[in-house]
């Protein structure tokens, strides 16, 4: 099993151009890669989506409910949820989880001596068991196996 097979979904491919070309958030730029061009949204929805994604990119490590995010960008939680699903084909929780896992992957690469629990905490996961479950869902391997595979290369 190759632990380097990270299966980015369409969310990643739709976000990078938004972040790099329009928002240019350096911290998350390395975590997300893809293109936003293929989306067909009107300007108002695009602005809401940009605001939401900007806020997510800056705060994904904190535990922010969808209702709070929706309130900060001025739309209803159900509208925001529908916007994520229709334009990014992902739920809010899925987007947050993917960002956290990608951040953890980058931390494992840049800090090979760090403990798994420290990486989980730095990536915004509250407990190690949840981190392990979510990490495995996205990478098909446990965080420890990923870290060990990195140290063997």
Q: What do these coordinates show?
A:
This protein has 9 helices and no strands. The chain is mainly alpha-helical and 153 residues long. The radius of gyration is 16 Å and the shape is elongated.
Q: What would you call the quaternary organization?
A: single chain
Give a short account of the largest sheet: none
What do the pLDDT scores average to?
77
Strand percentage: under 5%
Q: Alpha-carbon distance between the termini?
A: 14 Å
Number of strands: 0
- Number of H- or I-type helical stretches: 9
- Compute the gyration radius: what is it? 16 Å
> What is the H/E string?
HHHHHHHHH
Task: Give the fraction of residues assigned to helices.
Answer: 55-70%
Q: Summary?
A:
Helix content is 67%, strand content 0%.
Top keywords for this entry?
single chain, 153 residues, mainly alpha, 67% helix, 0% strand
List the helices and strands and how they pair.
Blueprint: H1 10-23, H2 26-29, H3 43-59, H4 66-73, H5 77-88, H6 92-110, H7 116-122, H8 128-139, H9 143-152
Helix pairs in contact: 4-5, 6-8
């Amino acid at each position: 099993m190759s632990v380097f097979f990270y299966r980015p979904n369409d969310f990643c491919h739709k976000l990078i151009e938004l972040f790099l070309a329009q928002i240019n958030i350096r911290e998350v730029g390395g975590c997300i890669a893809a293109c936003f061009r293929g989306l067909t949204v009107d300007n108002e929805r695009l602005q809401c989506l940009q605001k939401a994604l900007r806020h997510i990119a800056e705060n994904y490590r904190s535990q922010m409910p969808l209702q709070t995010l929706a309130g900060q960008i001025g739309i209803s939680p159900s509208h925001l949820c529908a916007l994520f699903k229709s334009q990014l084909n992902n739920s809010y929780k899925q987007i947050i989880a993917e960002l956290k896992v990608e951040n953890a992957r980058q931390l494992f690469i840049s800090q090979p001596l760090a403990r798994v629990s420290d990486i989980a905490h730095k990536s915004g996961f509250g407990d190690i068991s949840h981190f392990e479950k979510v990490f495995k869902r996205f990478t098909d391997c446990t965080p420890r196996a990923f870290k060990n595979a990195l140290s063997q290369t």
